[in-house]
Design a protein that fits this description.
By secondary structure, this protein is of the alpha+beta class. 68% of the residues lie in helices and 12% in strands. The chain has helices at 4-24, 26-34, 41-52, 58-70, 89-100, 102-112; strands at residues 39-40, 74-79, 82-87. Strands 1-3-2 form a three-stranded antiparallel beta sheet. Helix 3 (41-52) crosses helix 4 (58-70). The two termini are 27 Å apart.
Length: 115
């Protein structure tokens, strides 16, 4: 039997989980995006919306970019009237490590869900 309320709650739960995953891995997403070249905060917001259907506030994105820049993972500079970011050597090394350990990371998420 089709249960509208149960399906709605299930979809709502999945949407919240998707938001959490995107927000929790947003730094990894940014590092991967920067591998293709410089991006602005607006580009990050747009790409997250386009690829994952998730809207992230500009405050959240710019705070994370500032934090990543402070940690030496990315470097920002003014280009025309906006700030654009590029990967630093440290950021490239972190991205390589994450990519190399992708299977272990996926295995951890599988264990979290009990499969």
């Amino acid at each position: 039997m089709f249960d509208l309320e149960s399906d709605y709650l299930s979809e709502e739960m999945i949407e919240k989980l998707r938001m959490r995953l995107v927000k929790n891995f947003m730094d990894v997403f940014i590092l991967a995006e920067l591998e293709d070249g410089p991006v602005s905060g607006y580009d990050v917001i747009y790409d997250l919306q386009k690829r994952f259907g998730v809207f992230v506030s500009s405050g959240t994105v710019y705070y994370l970019l500032y934090s990543m820049e402070r940690d030496g993972l990315i470097s920002g500079r003014m280009q025309h009237r906006k700030r654009v970011y590029t990967l630093t050597e440290k950021g490239e090394e972190n991205l390589k490590t994450i990519t190399k350990e992708k299977e272990r990371i996926l295995g951890l998420t599988t264990k979290l869900f009990g499969s």
